[in-house]
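Anyone? Bumping this.
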Amino acid sequence: MSGCAPSVGLAAAAAEADRQRSAQAELLLASREVGNGLHQTDLSVPGIHCGACMKKIEGAIGAMAGVERARVNLSTRRVTIHWRADAAPPFVEALHCIGFDAHPYDAAAETEDGTLAGLIRALAVAGFAAGNIMLLSVSIWSGADAETRVLFHWISAAIALPALVYSGRVFFRSAWQSLRHGRTNMDVPISVGVLLAFGLSVYETIHHGPHAYFDAATTLLFFLLIGRTLDHLMRERARVAVKSLARLAARGALVQRPDGSSVYLPVREIAPGMTILLAAGERVPVDARVLRGQSEIDRSLVSGESLPQPAGSGCVLQAGTLNLTGPLTIVATVAADDSFLAEMMRMMEAAESGRSAYRRMADRAARMYAPVVHLTALLTFAGWMIATGDVHRAITVAIAVLIITCPCALALAVPMVQVVAARRLFEQGTMVKDGGALERLAEIDSVIFDKTGTLTLGQSHLVGGDDASRDGIAIARAVASHSRHPYSRALAAACRTDAAAPIVFDRVSEHPGSGVEAVAGTTTYRLGRAEWALSGSTSPQSAGAASVVLSKNGGYLAAFDFEDRLRPDARNAVETLAGSGLSVELLSGDREEPVRALATTLGIPHLARVSPGGKVAHIRAMTDAGRKPLMVGDGLNDAPALTAAYASMAPASAADVGRNAADLVFLRESLMAVPQAIAVARRAARLVRQNFALAIGYNVIAVPIAVFGYVTPLIAALAMSLSSLLVVANALRLGGMDRRRQNGGSPEGSIAALYGARGVAR
Amino acid sequence: MTDFFYLVPLALGLGLAGLAAFMWSLKSGQYDDLDGAAERILLDDSDKPIVPPRPDRA
């Protein structure tokens, strides 16, 4: 694939080859065998968005040697490839050539629990049963004669029993689990209601009674399973979307053996003392010390420092940092289990166990609801016993009370709203991990931001450079396009609009830690640190720490300044949050000056140089004071704080651990996602409360009817369906009122757009 | 009354056939990529989904 690889100069060719080798080994590591020597590789390709893309990708991959077949999944934006060869064909490069960014997706590591498929099957069975029993019931309600009624009751029982056993398991199991631990959740009254309805109906059928509730029991299950399936679907979609993001931690590393040969080992198998060849553009797999080589290290994801740090022999590198410019030979100092990343994981576990478990709103409601309902049924039984002394009549009425109070609407009240809210947020490019997160988000009273990568984009951006001549910019861009350094990338990106004649260099070489040198004929251009580029002569202006100088034969030509760019709408978002009565503050691991500068710009209090443990301690102190903080952060060092906070959000460019720890992940660049998510969460909380009121209102009307023994299966079916539909309709209002106010784009754009962020840095 | 002896089984049989068809389509991976399926009718290639090998069968 040399045809489309950027020419990085002869010196870097060997390093590039190294990089490709380890990329290929990584691909092999991420693939799995499916039998007969066939391997399956899953790639996540966020850029797929139409049928033409599918055809192009399937064509390109399918034509590669050793590939059996390739299939694109447009919904998940993934390619599944079956191939048969000794080494993995260069899929990623092939896709890059036709204009798609791709990265390995660890399908094997995915815990395929099949819950969703199970729920859909249960839903289908319940739907079949409910539909057919309802058909039979309609004829009974319209006055079928006694003989037909008994026959239909028996047929209904025969359909309901397997449906109850198959579809009802979901609820029975959960209710049993909960009861065994001495708690109640919403599934307890549901299970009791459904089982008693079935039991009473069977009794009535055997004794040729007029009323059987088979339709109520199965319809109830059907409705509840719809709610549960939607709830699961929403979480599944968020999980898949987050999982498809580029993996930022190293999967493995090229280890040099004592005999000089090298082998690609997974991170887990790297032991202290091993020598690792780290190519430019790779992340440090475990904590290590530099043996040979010169390069620059991007620590922004690990510590929040925004400027690249020079690294030379003897330097200590933390796992997760990114090697930018030159190849390094490093020695692992600890095993993966003792490295910085593992340390963060342990802190997260500690933070998790320290946090009091959040009880979902529905469970809290169930805890009050279940005893009241069961007590009412008991009192009804006692009342009828005293009044009539007829055991059969008393039991029938008591069970009717339980059936009519079976919390169908109550159980739908929360998940329906959350599903609609999650869908709204999904369209705005924000993924919600679970419904509880939305409830917690609605209650927060303060917001804590991290700096690098959260308030800022964590990317260098050209500022100034206006004084440079057009020629200077064109040359700088041409030179910069040969380097991977973030400043070079920023320069190349910023000047892209200037259409100048392409400049051809005879030789381009990168000097790690200094800059890039390009030779055209007798002229030598240098782009990099001032003291290196200007070689002796002094620059006309004092160059700042973050500036780069372009020189021609050692003479000054132009200077460029860079800074970490603020996220679009950062100021707007902070103002909106402060305006809605939330306290906002900045908590960063970076140096004092840049943090203070940013905090002053945004007008919020700040704390700089905070260690990961310090962040957790700060949040713990807030929580102890009764506050409910929302943590928004992206770095590895933020991950424990994300876990400790009452609610948490992370951008898509965050470290893998942070993304997994956060309750919500936003894919778009704009920071407005934070106030938007809070607004949707608060609106959802209001609708949930309304739904509870509706469900309770229904009970206030229905329970007296049941207690006085007027409930027939027809009334039960009508009342339950109506109350459920009412609650669902109310939940749908959330989607409506939001859509009228603002027109969000499709999530597709944001998933593809996120590739502008850190995905490239892999 | 005698009509029920073939009408009811017929009605239930039709329902069961629908249920079975749905279960089969679910199992054969036809719901794995709904967006892709909508686009694929415009492509004239062979069109079989790759069914992921499930851990319990592998």
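Late reply, but here is one note on the structure posted above: The first helix of chain B runs from residue 4 to 27.
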